[in-house]
Write a structure and sequence with these properties.
single chain, 317 residues, alpha+beta, Lambda Exonuclease, Chain A, two-stranded antiparallel sheet, 9 strands, 40% helix, 14% strand, extended
């Protein structure tokens, strides 16, 4: 049976890569929103994470088959000795030669831990030779975090690439890296989470997550940089509009020439096609509202509000 963990209050191994900007799946803003209670972490788990959890026992068993080592599930949460708000959920601890992996007090006694991963075959270029330490940066951070908390000197990372390529990697303890990660985590915890001050957003998407709605009546005064960006955006949008008009005109001319032809060809090479698609199907919403208003109210889902940037008088700014 797979163990179920309750996420404690603090910074964990799945958070640290995002906090230092190495995670491809979430950002420091995402972690902050989870920690201050504006969004549930579980609701943000993508299918890649659920798939990874599902295959974790298989990946661990393949590691045992390849290495001859036994692995032990550690269900409890481990906390850093000097910073109790820093925690870890380890996938497995490695037992070499049948030795115990924990002491009587529950502390880790083995020198090796195991992380189990699944990855797309399209990311294989991010992984180096087997048994090297050439793995994606987010996993380096995660393994370093776990070694800092457990005291293990090695982290083995077993990965199943594209459901067919199984590899094992080895990362050695790096005290300097651990100290840098702990410093970043403590700064994030103190300056952002406990102070309830969001980290500085680095993309439009992050701004939209932090500020889904505007404050009515609030405005900012444009400085020289903003004025330049507004003028540039205005010029770009006008150029884009002209290009769209030109594109529509050329599309019209091509279809006028094609009439009932399927393709335009040149020397045996297809240059363009014009084919009928399958008939679209849609729900007659006005009729549904009239005849079955009970169903409409039952299935209506409220979406997330979105903000739209509109230039006003940009030509004269």
């Amino acid at each position: 049976m797979q163990h179920v963990l309750t996420r404690p209050w603090g910074i964990g191994g799945s958070d640290i890569g995002a906090i230092v900007g190495l995670s491809p799946y979430k950002s420091a803003v995402d972690v902050w929103l989870e920690k201050v209670g504006r969004r549930e972490a579980a609701a943000q788990q993508g299918i890649h994470l659920r798939f990874g959890h599902h295959l974790e026992p298989f990946v661990a068993s393949e590691y045992e088959r390849v290495t001859g080592h036994a692995t032990v599930v550690l269900p409890q949460t481990l906390h850093h000795k000097g910073h109790p708000h820093l925690f870890a959920h380890i996938d497995r601890l490695v037992s070499k030669g049948g030795r115990e992996v924990t002491n009587a007090d529950g502390s880790v006694s083995t020198d090796t831990l195991l992380e189990c991963k699944t990855a797309s075959a399209f990311t294989s270029d991010q992984w180096g030779p087997e048994w090297s330490d050439q793995v994606p940066p987010a996993y380096i951070a995660q393994c370093a975090w776990y070694m800092a908390i457990t005291g293990c000197n090695e982290a083995h990372l077993a990965v199943l690439l594209g459901n067919s390529d199984f590899r094992v990697y080895k990362l050695l303890r790096d005290i300097e890296l651990e100290e840098a990660l702990i410093e970043s985590a403590n700064n994030f915890w103190q300056l952002n989470v406990l102070a309830e001050v969001p980290p500085e957003p680095v993309s439009r998407l992050e701004v939209a997550k932090l500020y889904p709605c505007e404050v009515r009546g609030r405005d900012i005064e444009a400085d020289d940089e903003l004025l330049g960006q507004i003028r540039s955006l205005g010029r770009t949008q006008r150029l884009q509009k002209r290009l769209e008009i030109r594109s529509a005109y050329l599309n019209e001319q091509l279809t006028l020439r094609m009439q009932d032809a399927e393709r335009i060809c040149s020397q045996g090479k297809t240059l363009a096609t014009w084919r009928a698609s399958s008939p679209p199907q849609r729900i007659d919403v006005p009729r549904l509202r009239r005849e079955r208003p009970d169903l409409v109210s039952e299935y209506v889902v409220e979406g997330t509000p979105s903000r739209r940037l509109v230039l006003s008088g940009a030509r004269d700014a």
